[in-house]
Design brief:
Oligomer: single chain
Number of helices: 8
Strand order of the largest sheet: 3-4-6-7-8
CATH superfamily: SMI1/KNR4-like
Helix content: 25-40%
CATH architecture: 3-Layer(aba) Sandwich
Number of strands: 8
Mean pLDDT: 88
Length: about 210
């Protein structure tokens, strides 16, 4: 029959316009005058020819295998991202790549040195539940780190994107963290989609 599970998921529109955002991001990164020269080395020829910093999207089978390995369902916007591209090169100059499905895993397994102690943080909800410009980067709960999903990698750097299953929205999104060596904590977002849009704005701002 023509309507296989793979075909159905591939052709289902996603609520978040990932392809539009990521194509715009790719085109701007690959501008030979404004952006690409700021990398330590040029993008590979195949990337420049394709005008795409990503990869083919993950298949339904790959996504299911990942969720089975993690023993949890992925948050919707991140799952949609992986359907669009199974991995991604630089978002900004601080993040080298977003991981493909085969490399995604729990922070405690992939980079336990980033966790530190797991003593409770006395951050009240009214202070923790603040996002955007009014957020204080130090107002984090480090005890959550042990259960976070590591979704990016930058060699020799503590800068990383994490997804926090302890804080979820009613529609299933997980809180997303940008943990950075230059911050007194992390910048937190309500979802991976929100994180990536803010990173794109940062990228645009840094280049203007």
């Amino acid at each position: 029959m023509p309507n296989t599970e793979k075909d159905t998921e591939k052709n289902t529109p996603t609520p978040h316009p990932w392809r539009e955002l990521l194509q715009r991001w790719s085109d701007e990164w690959l501008d030979p005058i404004r952006h690409e020269q700021e990398r330590h080395e040029p993008f590979p020829a195949a990337i420049r020819a394709a005008r795409w910093l990503g990869a083919p999207g993950a298949t339904p089978e790959e996504l299911t295998a990942l969720e089975q390995r993690l023993h949890t369902a992925l948050p919707p916007s991140y799952r949609e991202f992986l359907r669009t591209t199974d991995g991604w090169l630089d978002t900004t100059t601080d993040i080298a790549r977003l991981l493909p499905t085969r490399e995604i895993g729990w922070l405690r397994d992939l980079a336990p040195e980033l966790i530190g102690d797991d003593e409770p943080d006395d951050i009240p909800d009214e202070q923790y539940d603040v996002y955007g410009d009014q957020q204080q980067p130090w107002a984090i709960r480090t005890a959550y780190l042990n259960d976070m999903l590591k979704i990016s990698h930058t060699p020799d750097s503590g800068d990383v994107y994490l997804l926090n299953p302890h804080i979820r929205t009613p529609d299933g999104e997980w809180e997303a963290w940008y943990l950075a060596h230059w911050l007194p904590g992390a910048v937190r977002y309500r979802s991976f989609w929100d994180l990536m849009n803010d990173e794109y704005r940062t990228f645009r701002g840094d280049q203007d």
